[in-house]
Design brief:
Strand 6 (133-135) and strand 7 form a beta hairpin. The N and C termini lie far apart (42 Å). It is globular and about 50 Å long. The chain is 24% helix and 14% strand. It is of the alpha/beta class and 266 residues long. It has one domain: Collagenase (Catalytic Domain), CATH 3.40.390.10. Strands 4-3-5-7-6 form a five-stranded mixed sheet. A two-stranded antiparallel ribbon has the order 1-2. It has helices spanning 2-9, 21-24, 33-46, 94-108, 156-167, 248-257; strands spanning 51-52, 56-57, 82-88, 113-117, 124-128, 133-135, 143-148, 182-184, 230-232. Its EC number is 3.4.24.-. It is an enzyme of class 3 (hydrolase). Its cofactor is Zn(2+). It comes from Sinocyclocheilus grahami. It holds the Pfam family Astacin.
């Protein structure tokens, strides 16, 4: 309740929105997962709520750039699986639960990471309909909130996106080699949101840059005037991001990071 009240301090129904690329420049049927997330989170972001890259909440002890390692991975069980316990708020209706569980299944069906209802585990995901769509990065310990606000975040691709953050993955265009694959048009980005386009010395797990990753920003993310902020190279018309769920490369990266063995060639 205290956290919810603090969130509300950032949100005033009378404040202007950020320019909404998802409403004015992207058709609803063309929105990828991150477009949908930014549409929901825009009031929080316009008031300075501390979401890194639009939807990652800092734990206070870990930065975005240091997560891909043992410190933020969920532990591997002796049977070779990685069990991620979760509880889900009773506020969700049946369709909301199905949406969230579909996002989980899209990951669990092709990796050794299995989302399981919590029994007594100390570390678990606490999936709540708070304000916005956001997650911490990697396992932080204890009750770890993943916010999937209903109805705005109720898309299985959005759920999978936030769950991948909880597993330790940053946005695709933040990776260290991104400048070989996309151009960032800094002049088109809202000035106080340019920090969201930093690149980091990431462990790319020997995978190719994935334009179709569910973790990729949309073409107009944080646009100031409706101009594109990210352009693929060498073909500027290459689609970026998508809304349906993890790409094959997303799945491959999960399997590599979590040493999933027989799943790794998926």
């Amino acid at each position: 309740m205290v956290f919810q009240c603090r969130l509300l301090q950032y949100i005033d129904v009378n404040i202007p929105f950020l320019i909404s690329l998802t409403e004015h420049y992207v058709k609803p049927e063309d929105m990828n997962a991150m477009d949908r997330i930014l549409r929901v989170n825009q009031r929080m972001l316009s008031r300075g709520f501390p979401l890194r890259e639009g939807d990652i909440l800092s734990s206070g002890s870990r930065s975005v750039i240091t997560c891909l390692g043992d410190s933020c991975r969920w532990p591997r069980s002796v049977d070779g699986f990685v069990y991620v316990p979760y509880i889900i708020s009773p506020i969700y209706d049946d369709m909301d639960r199905i949406t969230v569980e579909t996002g989980m299944l899209d990951i669990s069906s092709a990796t050794c990471v299995k989302f399981v209802p919590r029994t007594h585990e100390a570390n678990f995901l606490n999936i709540q309909s708070k304000i916005g769509c956001w997650s911490y990065l990697g396992m932080i310990g204890g009750s770890q909130t993943v916010s999937l606000q209903s109805p705005g975040c109720m898309w299985s691709g959005v759920a999978a996106h936030e769950l991948m953050h909880a597993l330790g993955f940053v946005h695709e265009q933040s990776r260290s080699d991104r400048d070989h694959h996309v151009s960032i048009l800094w002049e088109n980005i809202i000035e106080n949101q340019r920090h969201n386009f930093k690149k980091y010395e990431t462990n790319n797990l020997n995978t190719a840059y994935d334009y179709s990753s569910v973790m990729h920003y949309g073409r107009y993310a944080f646009s100031e005037d409706g101009g594109p902020t990210i352009i693929p190279k060498p073909d500027p018309y290459t689609p970026i991001g998508q809304r349906d769920g993890p790409s094959l490369t997303d799945i491959h990266k999960i399997n590599i990071l979590y040493n999933c063995g027989r799943y790794s060639s998926y």
